[in-house]
């Protein structure tokens, strides 16, 4: 661990400054929260597993030409990242109906969507991360119209890359949440993390709706064997050649 000052503590990570003003160190915690932190727990080994999964996925995404904040991992649960200003929008991409999409539309869980659905949520815990319309995002000046177009386009590209990547792992990418940041040069970088905390991942071909779940829904819905599921995702991700 570093002894540099902490600049931010989120629910799953702590960010520290480094000697380089353009670089931050992200420390991945074992803490897990759900339902806007109303449910709290610890997933033993999660910090290490999520850091390794995120590092691998960021490298795969970079290799396809999408800029990310990822630099490297000086330790198994630490990631050096480029310093960015996070855009407070949670960009969700869905391939299969689950979670809040089912709750808010009545679409049946597991319905394969005709095309990926991109949704923007406001990253604001006190408001409960509400789903926003494009016009509300513009009204709130959370991003410009041009930036929203870039976020949408990048989200679709990331989905394409991740879907193909997880297919090689025998995992079905149901949906996921990503965040973006703006660097000093005003470049938009994929930031935060991509892990079983922020994705819905189902074991391909597993018909049992509980057994197939390899992501944080195991924690949200008290399905048990959370550590095993996260470890299985890491093992499968590491098995894909870069
Ligand atoms: P949702 O169905 O609850 O809207 O979640 C969609 C995706 O976003 C799912 O993969 C889980 C992820 N997610 C987060 O990463 N953070 C959150 O705070 C929420 C609500 C969802």
What does the model show?
The protein has 242 residues and is α+β, with helices and mostly antiparallel strands. A hairpin with a 2-residue loop joins strand 6 and strand 7. The radius of gyration is 17 Å and the shape is globular. Bound molecules: thymidine-5'-phosphate. The site of thymidine-5'-phosphate has 12 residues, from helix 2, strand 12 and strand 14.
Q: Overall mean pLDDT score?
A: 97
H-E order: EEEEEHEEEEHEEHHEEEHH
Describe the largest sheet.
7 strands, antiparallel
Structural class by secondary-structure content: alpha+beta
Globular, elongated, flat, extended or rod-shaped: what is the shape?
A: globular
Poorly predicted runs of 5 or more residues = none
Q: What ligand molecules are bound, each kind once?
A: thymidine-5'-phosphate
Distance between the termini: 28 Å
Could you give the count of β-strands?
14
Indicate the radius of gyration in whole angstroms: 17 Å
Observed structural traits:
alpha+beta; 5-stranded antiparallel sheet; 6 helices; binds thymidine-5'-phosphate
């Amino acid at each position: 661990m570093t002894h540099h000052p902490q600049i931010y503590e989120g629910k799953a990570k702590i960010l520290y400054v480094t000697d380089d003003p353009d670089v931050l160190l992200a420390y991945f915690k074992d803490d897990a929260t759900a339902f806007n932190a109303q449910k709290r727990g610890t997933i033993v080994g999660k910090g290490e597993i999520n850091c390794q999964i995120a590092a691998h996925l960021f490298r795969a995404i970079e290799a396809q030409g999408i800029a990310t904040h990822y630099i490297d991992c000086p330790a198994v649960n630490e990631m050096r990242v480029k310093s960015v200003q996070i855009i407070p929008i949670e960009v969700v991409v869905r391939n299969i109906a689950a979670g809040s999409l089912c709750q808010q539309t009545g679409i049946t869980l597991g319905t394969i969507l005709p095309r990926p659905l991109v949704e923007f949520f406001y990253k604001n815990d006190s408001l409960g991360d509400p789903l926003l319309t494009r016009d509300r995002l513009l009204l709130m000046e959370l991003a410009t119209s041009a930036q929203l177009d870039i976020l949408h386009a990048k989200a679709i590209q990331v989905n394409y890359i991740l879907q193909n990547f997880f297919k090689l792992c025998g995992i079905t990418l149901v949906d996921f949440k990503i965040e973006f940041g703006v660097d000093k040069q005003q470049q938009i970088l994929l930031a935060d993390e991509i892990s079983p905390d922020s994705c819905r991942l189902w074991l391909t071909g597993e018909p049992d709706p509980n057994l197939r779940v390899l992501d944080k829904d195991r924690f949200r819905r008290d399905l048990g064997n959370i550590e095993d599921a996260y470890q299985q995702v890491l093992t499968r991700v590491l098995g894909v050649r870069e």
